[in-house]
């Protein structure tokens, strides 16, 4: 499964698993507080400083080259991983702000599915409900008659079984123990899917699930980013996207993205919010992965051979010193902006966009 951690003895021994364990966050409990155990980051490639060197005409690290394509900024490649491209700072600060907002306020909206669907069915307005301190309660318990009408009219997929209510309003004392604060659900949001919906249980796209097209602005952005990795003369057609949400201590285990038909088309993967470590392995879990930092605004393209490489995110940095998001502080100043800033100060969002067919 996509987010599961592999825990068998066998997998503990693979090179990929060893690297995950090396970079994963561990806490030491001292008497007073939880302290993050230090980790050696000396082998983590930092494309931000590679870009600085490149801009100062300093020779690139061994194994790193720059792609000679018509693009508005340098694109770096790793000689040992053909088909992998790293674009540091690909998104402007304004684009980062825009996609953080969309990722929280609109991408988790039905018919897009999220990890909460399995338990609660489709839930509307998660982000605004968290901001307004609402709680989620079972619709049946509040309005038995209304709910059965809804169920009679709609299929299970679209009939809401839960809804958000004011904490001290509609919520009756007998409902209180069954309610979940929207803020808790927002913190537990792990993924949402845009465009063609991915069915995690079957590990395939289920084109019969209700869906909306990927928003136009995101398609345009993805096409622009994908261009350097596209086969000559072809245009990238964004059909599906997975948005991953990471909180402190979350990781994404090593996996392959292999459900799309044509691997010559890149996956366009964009980072927002707190800095992370990305592991790019080889075709086997036994290949030692290359570790690199991903910062807000960076984009990664994986095409061709790189589509067959295991990859994952063993760690994000949520402490003010290492998160590298100070440039976002000034972007969310208006009234409702604080809720976005509160979230992103301790979180990371990844939007990865695919052509499925
Ligand atoms: C993924 O591999 O699916 C996401 C990678 C990332 O979070 O950067």
Describe the structure.
This protein has 357 residues and is an alpha+beta fold. The chain folds into 2 domains: 11-108 and 190-354, Sandwich (Jelly Rolls); 117-187, no CATH class. The chain has 13 helices and 20 strands. The protein has helices at 9-12, 15-23, 47-55, 93-105, 117-120, 126-131, 139-142, 144-153, 173-176, 182-187, 216-226, 326-329, 337-344; strands at residues 27-29, 34-36, 64-66, 76-78, 84-87, 113-114, 135-138, 162-165, 180-181, 191-195, 198-199, 204-205, 240-247, 252-255, 267-273, 276-280, 290-294, 299-302, 311-316, 347-354. It is globular, with a radius of gyration of 21 Å. Mean pLDDT is 89; it is low at 1-6 and 144-158. The structure holds succinic acid (SIN). Residues 244, 252, 269, 271, 278, 294, 311, 313, 350, 352 line the site of succinic acid (SIN).
Summarize the structure.
It contains 13 helices and 20 strands. It has helices spanning about 10, 15-25, 45-55, 95-105, 115-120, 125-130, 140, 145-155, 175, 180-185, 215-225, 325-330, 335-345; strands at about 25-30, 35, 65, 75-80, 85, 115, 135-140, 160-165, 180, 190-195, 200, 205, 240-245, 250-255, 265-275, 275-280, 290-295, 300, 310-315, 345-355. Succinic acid (SIN) binds near residues 252, 269 and 294.
Largest sheet: 9 strands, antiparallel
The name of the CATH superfamily of the largest domain reads: Alpha-ketoglutarate-dependent dioxygenase AlkB-like
DSSP, total strands? 20
Beta fraction of the residues?
15-25%
Structural class: alpha+beta
| Helix content class | 25-40%
């Amino acid at each position: 499964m996509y987010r599961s951690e592999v825990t068998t003895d066998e997998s503990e021994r693979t090179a990929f698993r060893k690297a995950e364990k090396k970079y994963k966050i561990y806490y030491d409990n001292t008497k007073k507080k939880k302290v993050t155990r230090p980790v050696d980051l000396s082998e983590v490639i930092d494309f931000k400083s590679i870009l600085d060197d490149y801009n100062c005409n300093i020779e690139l690290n061994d194994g790193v080259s720059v792609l000679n394509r018509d693009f508005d900024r340098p694109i770096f490649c790793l000689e040992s991983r053909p088909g992998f491209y790293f674009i540091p700072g690909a998104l402007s600060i304004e684009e980062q702000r825009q996609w953080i907002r969309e990722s929280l306020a609109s991408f988790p909206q039905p018919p897009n599915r999220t990890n909460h669907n399995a338990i609660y069915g489709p839930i509307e307005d998660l982000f605004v409900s968290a901001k307004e301190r609402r709680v989620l309660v079972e619709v049946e318990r509040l309005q038995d008659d209304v709910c059965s009408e809804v169920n009679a009219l709609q299929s299970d997929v679209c009939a809401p079984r839960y809804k958000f209510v004011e904490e001290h309003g509609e919520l009756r004392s007998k409902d209180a123990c069954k309610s979940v604060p929207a803020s808790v659900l927002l913190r537990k949001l792990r993924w949402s899917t845009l465009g063609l919906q991915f069915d995690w249980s079957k590990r395939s796209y289920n084109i019969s699930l209700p869906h909306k097209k990927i928003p136009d602005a995101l398609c345009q952005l993805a096409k622009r980013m994908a261009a350097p990795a596209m086969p000559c003369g072809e245009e990238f057609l964004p059909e599906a996207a997975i948005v991953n949400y990471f909180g402190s201590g979350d990781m994404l285990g090593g996996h392959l993205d292999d459900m799309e038909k044509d691997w010559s088309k890149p996956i366009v993967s964009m980072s927002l919010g707190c800095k992370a470590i990305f592991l790019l392995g080889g075709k086997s879990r036994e290949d030692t992965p290359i570790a690199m930092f991903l910062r807000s605004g960076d984009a990664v393209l994986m095409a061709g051979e790189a589509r067959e490489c295991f990859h994952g995110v063993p760690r994000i940095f949520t402490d003010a010193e290492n998160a590298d998001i100070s440039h976002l502080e000034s972007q969310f100043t208006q009234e409702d902006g604080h809720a976005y800033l509160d979230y992103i100060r301790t979180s990371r969002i990844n939007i990865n966009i695919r052509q499925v067919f």
